[in-house]
Amino acid sequence: MRAAITSLLLLVGLSTGVWWALREHDHRYDREILVTARRYGLSPGLVKALVWRESRFRAGIRGNHEEIGLMQLQPTTAQEWADASRNPAFTAEHLLDAGTNLQAGCFFLSKIVRRYPRADNPWPYALADYNAGRGNVLRWLKGPAETNSAAFLAAITFPTTREYVRAILERTPRYEAEFR
């Protein structure tokens, strides 16, 4: 009986430790996300949801198509930020730094959000653009989808991109509440 109780207490302790570690993992970049998102006029909750979806808060992650870091940026995309910031020493390796990655990613996201000023909600358009590229978004902008975000979501022909956009939009309010 004593062994069973000891095992149960150990299991509860480990579960609590795992929960605490995961919770801390999800919050370790909150301050940087908040400051950087606001700097670029973005919703901190949306940026955090995008980071969650892209990297699960792992700054050192690399994707299969040269994407790097928290926001899974391609070096050519980040170079636009470096050029605009007058940072001639920038290299792709700098994207492994969470702060640099967030700066470059928020710069890029704020740029693409401005591409959709007529939309009732520019976020689905910008997220689809971030994930699938501008060329694909332009193909999906037909009829009501030009300005109606619900119609736009329905017009996305890549199931993975549609799910990507929905997952981020669904998680955004949860993270937005954390920043209040």
What would you say this structure looks like, in words?
It is a single chain. The model is unreliable at 17-22 (pLDDT under 50). This protein has a domain at 115-180. Helix content is 66%, strand content 0%. By secondary structure, the chain is an all-alpha fold.
List the main descriptive attributes of the protein structure presented here.
180 residues; 0% strand; 66% helix; mainly alpha; globular
What layout of secondary structure does this protein have?
Elements: H1 2-27, H2 30-39, H3 44-55, H4 75-84, H5 98-113, H6 122-132, H7 134-140, H8 149-155, H9 159-178
- How many helices? 9
| Gross morphology | globular
Task: Give the end-to-end Cα distance, rounded to a whole number of Å.
Answer: 47 Å
Share of residues in helices: 55-70%
Q: Would you report the number of β strands? A: 0
**Which blocks of ≥5 consecutive residues have pLDDT under 50?**
17-22
Question: How would you concisely characterize the structure shown here?
Answer:
With 180 residues, the protein is mainly alpha-helical.
